[in-house]
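Hello Y.,

Per our agreement to keep a running log of every chain we model this quarter, I'm adding this entry. I've kept the format consistent with earlier entries: sequence first, then predicted structure.
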Amino acid sequence: MRDFGKINSNQLYGLWKNLTVCLLAVISTLVFSKILPYYLSPVVALLVASGLYMYIYNEKFATSRSCILPPITILYCIVAYAFLTIILNLMHVWGLFEMPHEFIFFTDPFIPALILNPVSFIVLLVMYLQKRKLRPCIECRSNRSFGGHRGAAGLLKAEAHLQMKNFILLSGVLSLAVWLYYQFSYINVNINGRDDYIFTWLSVIGVFLDELYFSWRYYNLYLDLKESDELITPEELRDMTAKTYIRFYVVAGDKMYLTDHAVDSNGGKAEVWDTPFFTKQTMNGRLGDDVKSIIKRMTGVDDGELRFFYGRRSPDDNKHSLLRYFYFLDGDASDYPELDTPGEWVSFDKVKYIYSNQPNKMAEFAVYDITRLATIMLTEKIFDENGFRKSGIRSYMPTFNLLEVRKSKIDFQDDKWIEISLFNSDTPLYKLKKWWRSKNRKSRKKLG
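Predicted structure for the entry above:
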């Protein structure tokens, strides 16, 4: 399972490409707003946003795409700037209040940076703080349950978030510089060379230096990953044989069979808690009855109940599959003092304690799997299929054990309960938002 921690070189290139497209979008908005007549500034911004939207749409379906959150955020920044500019000008035209000439694109001079920089700072900050709740991030977490986020595989997520923080810092510094100059040094007569430099070219230079820094950064990352054998090329992916990885969770009563001497495939050499039952098959598709024969051989117990947990295909090459199964044994753990694979019976209460308080001592795949299991089990107890609470007591916090998991008829492969856990009646304006989502879903179906 060592291959899971490797990064596709195309994904590393995608990090740089996404950043470059974002910065080019910002530069284009500023420069073309200066070159063209001022009243075309909102049009320029919306055209740039349209191009960025098409780029994001194409990237969304790319085979080895990197995180698309930075381009989405910059898209929102540019759209917000365009509509805020239009709204401010309409309010001025309607006589609702007077605006300085620098904010009106019908007059000379109009200074886009006074609006674009602070709007970008606010949008970026909000998006960064809400990133775990955003739809692209939710979909990514669901798909990436194949590979993980520690070690090399976690670099993609970490770098995307670094880009976001960098955008926040850059827009914040430029906003401060532009507004301080506007308030204390700018003379409202005409735009001289210094004014032009501060209001336009300072932002362009800042963005350009940002591009140089990240180009240098990603080139060095590429060299480091290649040297440490944590990089996989598209050619290696094409030549790679399709494999199916299988993880088994052996359960007896309310105990799970684990080992604390496992090595996490996604990070470091420290020993961690994990199931000792995993295997690799050089094949693709369904394994059928072979799965039960594998776990029988690994445990030495023939009469257990095998149940499919959930599985995923690799989102990067679509060749590898990772399947999870439960193998429930009748009776208690004391009936099976030793299994053929080294390990020990651990109470589920202890598993939950390690998961909650010491997750770094647990293999990342185990953390992912327990997160999915707990989320689905608890959400099904709290909410109905429409997302409404079964109990009026909002403080109700249920628990569950492995005996309930065995009795449960829930389809753990289905993401329905995961989605309900993220969007339910506890969400402000839930009914209105649900209605809006259903309308959008119907519109997309008609377009499709």
